[in-house]
Amino acid sequence: MYALSVLSPSRVEAARRLVKTYDFVITTGGIGPTHDGEPPLPPLFLRASSHSLTGHARVGAADITYQSLAAAFEQPLEHHAETLRRMGEMIRHRTDLGKQTDDQRVARERMALFPARAEVLYIASDIWVPVVRLEGKLCIFPGIPKLFQRMVDGLVPFLPLPPPSERPYRQQVFTNLPESSIAPYLTTLQARVKDAGVRVGSYPLLAKGVYVSLIGRDQERIQALGEEVAREIQGRLVSEEEARKEKAAL
Questions:
Q1: Where in the chain is the domain with CATH 3.40.980.10?
Q2: Would the pTM of this model clear 0.70, i.e. be above it?
Q3: What percentage of the chain carries pLDDT values higher than 90?
């Protein structure tokens, strides 16, 4: 189920409400050294307790900085020593930064000025920017798209997800056929397996083909359906790892 959540004029109230309502909240952007952060319209994604994406909203970057989120949860801001150290390691080859004025240095170090009681999660040894998490739910990310994607992937070990045995199983199938050619079959398939709790989705890649996703609790049933789908749409079974690599290469 998807729904659009519109944030209220009070960003402080909105942050509190979203964290109270949802299990997983993400903000992107607004954490850079300038007055307005990174992108002007960073997204905020919400995940409900069913572990399905239920909505998104957009707010101005200046409204979701560390400062405003610290205010939302009544925390002071403090420079984070380890983040400052990692930042220094990453930029030590930049001789121009050694010539910065005090104001420029303060602006740079603002990127390590976090709410005092936040969790600071480093998801990769070569990325000095951490994911800052508030209330165990609200995760603050940079807005640079490729960096955001990599950090989201790296956050998985830090999420309170159920064990694999309790999660729905997914099988993906890739075909070079256009989505319109496989649509009638997928519509019929979804009607046939709906009562068994199986979800069928299709995700086209422009001028490349289509990924078909089969999701359900019965792994053997999903695997058998995957083989059927591969035959019917002239496709091939794709593992989760293969799908990630293929999509990342686009």
A1: 11-36+62-158
A2: no
A3: 49
